[in-house]
Design goal:
Shape: elongated
Site (Essential for prephenate dehydratase activity): 180
Radius of gyration: 21 Å
Order of helices and strands: EHEHEEHEEEHHEHEHEEEHEEHE
CATH superfamily of the largest domain: Periplasmic binding protein-like II
CATH topology of the largest domain: D-Maltodextrin-Binding Protein, domain 2
Catalytic activity: prephenate + H(+) = 3-phenylpyruvate + CO2 + H2O
Protein name: Prephenate dehydratase
Mean pLDDT: 91
GO molecular function: prephenate dehydratase activity
Number of domains: 3
Number of strands: 15
Keywords: Amino-acid biosynthesis, Aromatic amino acid biosynthesis, Lyase, Phenylalanine biosynthesis
Structural class: alpha/beta
Length: 289
């Protein structure tokens, strides 16, 4: 039986592409959900076996709704990570493809997609109003439904293909080194059909309130063991101003002797350590034209 995988939909989003890469359709059924919390709650409620959601973009930073849902509302482990190249396109209805860019009045897309292209959009279509949608694919669908409107959408080429739209510009993001990290979460280990680039362990650490210099001591536990930390981030505990969880990603599997030693040392300091996941990490290579 094929496993069911939730992803931030509809079809044609970058999350859909990431889910296809991690869970090829011949092995899984991909099920779109309208929001990140819906995806994660579906796997927490065991409606699906896995969920794929974005967690960080190279230009716009962390996706807070993903982090907060993983930290506060569900307890499902991270089982894989994929770093995926993001190439944004400017698309229109075929009936509007000969209209000058300066005559378009609305640009529709997800807030992150618009933010990634904001400077270029302002230069090319200064009169257009930004209209935020739940996803890039949703924006493309709205363009398809309004053929007479001078509207454009920003999103992946796949969204244009699915909706029969014309692409006016490709790779229009303000910074070409644009990647998004996607996480797969689930109740069992993901079967890996590709070789991982490396393994990572993600920890949620709560510092003791009465221990000056606790964060320094936590980082020292990794430093003297020469464990590389690829990400450190704080998120509010939602218990009061100044109270934070620290999310630390280390480039070692959790069962490695050095990782076990670091975790034990941190716990001796009085910190609470929650393992969010220990998982393989993959990079989707950029295709050269």
């Amino acid at each position: 039986m094929k496993e069911v995988v939730a992803y931030l939909g509809p079809a044609g989003t970058f999350t859909h592409a990431a889910a296809e890469w991690l869970f090829p359709e011949k092995h899984a059924v991909l099920q779109p959900y309208s929001t990140i919390p819906d995806c994660l709650q579906a796997v927490a409620d065991r409606e699906v076996q896995f969920a794929v959601v974005p967690v960080e973009n190279a230009i716009e930073g962390s996706v807070n709704s993903t982090l907060d849902w993983l930290i506060h509302y569900i307890d499902v482990p991270i089982v894989a990570e994929l770093v995926y190249p993001i190439a944004q396109c400017l698309m229109v209805h075929p009936s509007q493809k000969h209209r000058p860019l300066r005559e378009f009045r609305k640009i529709l897309s997800h807030p992150q997609a618009i933010a990634q292209c904001q400077r270029t959009l302002r230069q090319k279509a200064p009169m257009a109003e930004f209209v935020f949608t739940d996803s890039t694919a949703k924006a493309a669908g709205l363009i398809k439904e309004q053929p007479d409107q001078p509207w454009m959408a920003v999103g992946p080429a796949k969204a244009a293909e699915f909706n029969g739209l014309s692409i006016l510009m490709e790779n229009m993001q303000d910074h070409q080194n644009n990647f998004t990290r996607f996480l797969a979460v689930g109740w069992k280990e993901k079967e890996n059909r590709q070789s991982a680039d490396f393994c990572k362990t993600s920890l949620q650490i709560t510092l003791p309130s009465d221990y000056p210099g606790a964060l320094y001591q936590v980082l020292a536990a990794f430093s003297w063991r020469k464990i590389n930390l690829c990400r450190i981030e704080s998120r509010p505990t939602k218990t009061g101003l100044g109270n934070y969880y620290f999310i630390i990603d280390a480039e070692l599997p959790v069962d490695h002797l050095l990782m076990q030693g670091a975790i034990s040392e941190i716990e001796v300091l009085g910190c609470h350590v929650r393992i969010l996941g220990s998982f393989p990490c993959f990079y989707k290579k950029v295709m050269k034209k």
